[in-house]
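Lab notebook: predicted structure, single chain.

Context: the supervisor wants predicted structures on file for every construct in the current expression panel, including those that have not yet been purified. This is the next one on the list. No modifications to the sequence; it matches the entry in the shared construct table.
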Amino acid sequence: MDIRPADLPDLPEIQAIYAHHVLHGTGSFEEAPPSVEEMTARFVAGTGRGWGWLVAADATGVIGYGYYAQYKNRSAYRFTAEDSVYVRDDVRGQGVGKALVAALITHATARGFRQMVAVIGDSENIGSIGLHASLGFARIGLLRAVGLKFGRWLDSVTMQRSLGAGDADVPGEKTPLG
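Prediction complete. Output recorded below exactly as produced.
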């Protein structure tokens, strides 16, 4: 498995992975899969701001992808990233997600982010919760019954970890990207 920056030719495979999760899982609260064109717009917007989009690939193609973006758009959040990771269904449980999140942590830290937040759809998503815990994320919150998908209410779990110096000092006023 090779982890590398995502590129435009990867987007059809990225979209297919995400579409599977949207249609069959509760890790995403989207209910209709975005098109390749919509995924491309999201990719261009994120990478245009310097945020990381990474893929894990092997001889079969893209087997997972992850990205981070600023946690919320307000300026005070400029040093906090939120990660997202999705793995192709046939390779789940083989360490792909963990490798991607670890790479996202490294990427975001190198760009000056100080915190990373994971907003995990469905409190029963023990795979993602365990993966994040194994990489130093602490569970900091639970929003009960905030999503409705597949005819049932879903919780959202929030986890967080420090990056780099974390809150040990206050960085300059610039954003992590300049």
